[in-house]
Amino acid sequence: QSSVTLFGIVDTNFTYIDNANTAGDNKYGLGTSGNATSRLGFRGVEDLGGGLKAGFWLEGEIFGDDGNAAGFNFKRRSTLSLMGGFGEVRLGRDLVPSYTKVSSYDVFGQVGIGQFMGWSTWGQSTSTPDANGYRQDNMLAYYTPNFGGFTAGLGYGFDEKASGHDGRYMGGFAAYDNGPLSVTVALDRRDIGYNVAPLVYDGKKDMLSIGASYDVGMAKISALAQQSRFKDVPASSDRKVNSYMIGAAAPVGAGQVRLQYALYDQKAIDSKAHQLSLGYVHNLSKRTALYGTVAHMKNKDASNLALAAKGLSTTGAGAGESQTGVQLGIRHSF
Amino acid sequence: QSSVTLFGIVDTNFTYIDNANTAGDNKYGLGTSGNATSRLGFRGVEDLGGGLKAGFWLEGEIFGDDGNAAGFNFKRRSTLSLMGGFGEVRLGRDLVPSYTKVSSYDVFGQVGIGQFMGWSTWGQSTSTPDANGYRQDNMLAYYTPNFGGFTAGLGYGFDEKASGHDGRYMGGFAAYDNGPLSVTVALDRRDIGYNVAPLVYDGKKDMLSIGASYDVGMAKISALAQQSRFKDVPASSDRKVNSYMIGAAAPVGAGQVRLQYALYDQKAIDSKAHQLSLGYVHNLSKRTALYGTVAHMKNKDASNLALAAKGLSTTGAGAGESQTGVQLGIRHSF
Amino acid sequence: QSSVTLFGIVDTNFTYIDNANTAGDNKYGLGTSGNATSRLGFRGVEDLGGGLKAGFWLEGEIFGDDGNAAGFNFKRRSTLSLMGGFGEVRLGRDLVPSYTKVSSYDVFGQVGIGQFMGWSTWGQSTSTPDANGYRQDNMLAYYTPNFGGFTAGLGYGFDEKASGHDGRYMGGFAAYDNGPLSVTVALDRRDIGYNVAPLVYDGKKDMLSIGASYDVGMAKISALAQQSRFKDVPASSDRKVNSYMIGAAAPVGAGQVRLQYALYDQKAIDSKAHQLSLGYVHNLSKRTALYGTVAHMKNKDASNLALAAKGLSTTGAGAGESQTGVQLGIRHSF
Fold it and tell me: Among residues A112, A106, A97, A94, which one has the least CA distance to residue A36?
């Protein structure tokens, strides 16, 4: 039917990680989604007349290394939208408004070993669905139209609990894009209570992210600053993680060079980690690219953060132990 | 390839249910399939010449609220058909013949909180696959052509057991459609034995459904009467549930108003439940509609039936406690 | 999008198997994939210029009898390819090179009750992922271009283990096709270690397969000889299974008659099994066919091999007991 667009990406790579576990073993093999997240989706937009449009979007992740051994679903995005001069109202499961825009300042696009990892769950001892801050079930979101460069979005994810609010999301962002400049502020709160005795608590995770980029012509400079605060969660005191990132992407012929530094200041364990990422993407066409990334995670003190090597199931090295990784891959869109 | 039609529906809503559990808590959030069941499918028909056609149909349910967190499959329909002047022979998993036609008299189309619930499993203490009477694995079905308004269908679902017949289905329907009048009689038997010691029995569930509708021009009046009988099942004596429904749907401008009353007479527990549903569907286009439904389930004595709020995981209120629900949603077809 | 081809097959049949278990019960019902494996897939090729092409292939199995009750995935094939004058480099999950070409000599196409079963796992006491030798996760494969009838392929499937090599695959094939003649030699090794105490070992499974076919005009004669060797696995001594097959396929009007004999010489239990298969495929069109297969598995001594009746979940009969099966089905491609 002409009303449906079938689309997707397959991104598969060779990945090597040293110190892939606390025993210090290396690991290598085929990984997935090093330059863009592999996906398969169906989407469409219908013009209802009078400036009103309806749209649907169903998108699921593809794991090219094991053929989606855990099954295929549409957890990346399953939404219905009504769009018009008023903006867009969106219903369903989706990336949260406080993530979509501000995460775009990550020079590595939130994929692969080079990515900025401030949205990871490692700052948290127990997790609830989607506590990583990327996506949310049962969400009602609103996105404004573009007012001379200003855009904003708000979302509310229903907890659907008979009592308590575990799993609820509230958040939003405001952004300004004008020529070479882009700035975004995003804020959200998640109820991350836990309810399996004897561990019962009613916690919160608050996140503030500020990002900006400036295109100086020969390169685009990007930066992110982020604070995750956990309230009323067990184990030690309330926790806080401050994350910072600065990076640059420069076009070089048919490709792009990427360089990024990130700092993860884990207040609860009074430990820092430094991540340095260097990458090159070579476009074979608009749809297909080869890429290579080298990343180093320097863990200090009690920190044991791991590089994000999807499809290789690595964990953090021992406390204070560092990790280096290499990814060489192909990304193909359709 | 031109031989495949990709089709689907996404229907997502806001649902509120009071007395959503025995504690009397309310529940609200994003639900799915309030006006039509959300789905994604692939189907096609090939003309083999000589009046013979072959067709396939693969269709799975979509959960727009959580992105099919439990995975995507084709359990709505996975069939191969041979069609010709003789009618249609259909192989695979599908809605059973004793459900497809007769369930169409439900003014609320067997979805959402307003739907007639005679096919639900609440009349039964233990369940086997598809014991709700909707669908059947491993089914061989035959549908006649239309003979001057008369149609009929028969199905046999293999149990595929080495011993016993748990899971077997036998059923069919006969219908007459002529101008404003439509009448259907459907009958089926399921082997619902249970084989996990110490609970071992070899039960049956028989279901007789009679439905009719008459289009009086300004509205279409529909009615259903149904008896579910359980034989040789444990706990108390053999059970029986008699369900009745009467409703009307009237076109109003670009929309349709729906009103329906249902009575569930649960003989085994000597208790009745009354359900009253009122709905309005507003078509924004042929493909897209907004809808609103209000429904009330009045449980008497030991009855504790729940409104069908898909995606909100409610249960019945306490015995004799009633439940009221509201659904406001969008349905978009592609 | 024009860059994607949606394709598939639905093949559903009626299957009857006698002695379907050790108790000697019969079993019958709806099965799947008797003449071709039911599947749904998405694939595409992009011309990158300069003789270089990129391609993707995502394909999952369809179970028309139960609607993919266990969920849909892309475990049949999930690959990215770069193709050119040098041949093809393929990344992802796929059939292994030592299986694809040489298995084509099976007259019954590695599906249904008639198929040659040398690649089954019955020769092995404990299994690791994909130990049957068909497919492999995390594989890097290379296929040569066709050099005057000569082709070859090599594959390496990463184990992705921090220690040990359980799950690793290494293998390849070389083939020669010229007019009526086709010959293939294939060899592989799998690391099938097992690591759950107290059963810990570091085994290997080596497989050598030699196949050939000759088209004599009125029929095509095919033969296969295969040896599976297990090394360093527990229970009795190292095991060996020698399998042999000879068959013929002859066009008859719009159809094809197939006849095949296979011998499974299970050295470890010093027992043989003989399999005789007779089938007829009647093409209703290029896309649709009816088929019928009769197969008999004669188990001798301790052998208890079962016919492959997918969708009917049969097991081997008792030791030395034989099994006879019938399949009648439809295969429809799209």
Answer: A112
Please indicate whether, in this complex, the C-beta atoms of A4 and B8 are within 8 angstroms of each other: yes
List pLDDT tens digits, range C98-143.
999 999 999 999 999 999 999 987 655 555 667 778 999 999 999 9
Residues 6+ apart with CB under 8 A from A163: B23, B25
Residue B77 CA from chain centroid, whole number: 13
CB contact under 8 A, A158 and B29: yes
Domains, chain B:
5-333 (2.40.160.10)
Cα(B237)–Cα(B230) distance, integer angstroms: 9
Alpha helices for B67-125 (secondary structure H)? 97-100
CA gap C247, C211 in Å, rounded: 11
Largest CA distance in chain B: 64
Please say whether the beta carbons of B80 and C64 come within 8 A: yes
Here the tokens at position B126 are 């233990």
A64: which chain C residues are within 8 Å (Cβ-Cβ)? 78-80, 91-93
Taking the CA of residue A72 and the nearest CA in chain B, the distance in Å comes to: 6
Q: Both tokens of residue C125?
A: 């006491």
Nearest to B222 by CA among B262, B251, B280, B173: B262
Of C44, C58, C161, nearest to A62 by CB-CB distance is C58
Q: Rounding to the nearest 10 degrees, give the CA dihedral for residues B131, B136, B138, B140.
A: 130
C-alpha A214: how far from its chain's center?
Answer: 21
In DSSP terms, A290 is beta-bridged to: A282, A330
Per-residue pLDDT band at A237 (split at 50, 70, 90): low
Q: Are the C-beta atoms of C77 and C59 separated by less than 8 Å? A: yes
pLDDT at C24 exceeding the cut of 70: yes
Which positions in chain A touch B69 (Cβ < 8 Å)? 73, 75, 137
Interface pTM, i.e. ipTM: 0.95
Q: Which residues pair with B225 in a beta bridge?
A: B210, B244
Residue type, C74: F
Amino acid identity, position A221: I
Q: Do C49 and A285 touch (CB under 8 A)?
A: yes
Residues of chain B whose beta carbon is less than 8 angstroms from a beta carbon of chain C are 1, 3-4, 6, 42, 44, 46, 48-49, 52, 54-56, 58, 60, 71-80, 82, 91-93, 137-140, 158-163
- Give exposure, B288-314, as e/b (b: 16+ Cβ within 10 Å): bbbbbbbbbbbbeeebbbbbbbbbbeb
Q: Find out whether A268 and A295 touch, Cβ atoms under 8 Å.
A: no
Q: Looking at residue B128, what is its pLDDT?
A: 64
Closest listed residue to residue C310, CA positions, set C102, C29, C57, C51: C29
Between CA B198 and CA B206, with CA B201 as vertex, the angle to 5 degrees is 150
pLDDT, tens digit, 9 for 90 and up, residues A10-62: 999 999 999 999 999 999 999 999 999 999 999 999 999 999 999 999 999 99
Q: How many helical (H) and strand (E) elements, i.e. helices and strands, does chain A have? A: 1, 19
Question: Alpha carbon of A248 to those of A219, A329, B8: distances in Å?
Answer: 6, 21, 42
Optimal mutation site among A288, A310, A313, A314, interface C, most CBs of chain C within 10 A: A288
If you write DSSP's letter for every residue of C217-255 in order, what string do you get?
SS-EEEEEEEEEEEES-SSSS--EEEEEEEEEEEEETTE
Give the whole-angstrom CA distance, residue A318 versus residue A303: 8
Helix (H) or strand (E) holding A175: strand A169-178
Neighbouring chains of A at 3+ CB pairs under 8 Å are: B, C
Residue C164 confidence (pLDDT) = 84
**Residues A180/A196, Cβ–Cβ less than 8 Å:** no
Rounded CA-CA distance B76/B55 in Å is 16
Nearest chain B residue (CA) to C19: B162
